[in-house]
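Researcher: Next entry in the queue.
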Amino acid sequence: MKRRDFMSWPDLQYNGHFENDRMISEEMENRSIYKHIPLAALFATLGVIFPVFFHITGLGSAFMPMFIPIIMGSMLLPPSLAVTIAFITPVVSFLLTGMPPVYPPILILVIAELLTVSLLSSYLYFMKNWSVWITLVIAMGADRLVLFAFVFFLAKKLGFPGRFFSAGAVIYSIPGVVLIFLIIPLTLKFLQRKYPQILQSQQ
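Model: Structure for this entry, 203 residues:
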């Protein structure tokens, strides 16, 4: 049987419709991202300002001030923008304020942690509409694992007891985890009541 090396008119029509649908889908996705850029810029800015305020008032890094606006923003942004602000915010903060420092490699650790929590927060809450509590438990649980593994590896490299230092790092930031679980659900509830259009933009 002779091989068919051309497409029939119905096949061309089908492929044409498929291509149009794909282009429309990509255009809608781009519009959605553009629509969220001002919100992303707001939370990235807050991510730079919050740590400065916390350090001025003597509260310090134990309260994880940069995490609060980044996680909050990630729950209201698509994943691509969530990971963007998670990466850009600590880098800009370092360039402007010197925090978090490059050595010891706290900047790399913070970037790794923020990428983890932002991606999970955006995917579970923004994309899948999971509850804020389940989202926070999973995101912060994964973040604690990243923190533990990073400090364990670094301590081992420097000749220190890995388990002791990594456990200490996790315990030290417990106040920040508690603050995140207090502030973010309350803030989302406030936004739902006062500014529902922000949350409706997720749909």
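Model: Residues 9-56 form the longest helix (48 residues).
Researcher: Noted, moving on.
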